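Today's session is about reading a structure prediction critically. Students often jump straight to the picture, but the first step is always the sequence itself: look for stretches that repeat, for charged clusters, for runs of hydrophobic residues. Only then move on to the predicted structure, which in these notes is written as discrete structure tokens rather than atom positions. Here is the chain we will use throughout the hour.
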Amino acid sequence: MSKIKSISLKILTILRVVSKRKWIYFGTLTVFLFGSVVLVIKYCDMPIWNNMPQFYIKPENSDMLFYNLSVSYIASYLFYLLVNFIPDWIDAVEGEKELIALRCVIQREIQLFTYRCMSIWSSMGRAASVGEIDNINGFFNRRVIQQISTATNISANSDTMSFNTNYIDWCTKIVTELNVISTSGNSILTRYKNDIPSEMFYNLFYIINENSMIGSLNVAVQTMTALYGRNIILSQCMDFENGTGGDGIDRSCRSIVDLHNWVNSEYDYLINHISGENIKIYRIERSAYLAR
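Below is the predicted structure for this chain, in token form.
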């Protein structure tokens, strides 16, 4: 069973290194190839097999234009296959192998970034006693986030101790964690801007700049505490009290979930292609978002 899985993974690797657009182009050329082969058989002077259907029997005094065009197309197709497609395919497969280490680094950094985004809300969820939730979509949705933010007074003690063994308040923990998240996110965007898939690149940008649970929340908490002090509810910083905060929560949750799913799918691919024992990558486990 493991051998079959290994072979299927190798086939998938070979297939995915070629872009979808190139596969469509190659498929279109191949469709015309079948038509050309049919015409070559039809107009060929030598019978290909006995009792050929009437369609494949060459008409007398037939025009050989279609035959000549078909032979030329088949020759061109083979030329393209041998000179362009196969060499490009081999280069892509070799390039994919060379990029495995870089992809592991990117996966690891985004895994840590995403874990931080999720764990800050998970820790507030435990304090708010939202209970055990068995999947990421069940945790990151408007209802649960509103429940957590409504139950969190940012002046109350968090679950994190400072150096003098006293618990720091939620305001300090939230601002500190979100500053670390913002710094690491900007670093990832800067260093790997040409290597991250475009949809994940935008998710990272959105989370650290516009996400109402991460990026813009950092600014909101600092602004609200400067104006009204720390004795406020987190939901006030997210405008839940005014009934408008939920508008961006759905999109904010979706961006975190999408990043989580990408990290784990990238892990599933890379873990089967890592050759060096020194390379370590990790999934995001359920403990990152389950508030027990």
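Discussion point for the tutorial: Residues 65-98 form the longest helix (34 residues).
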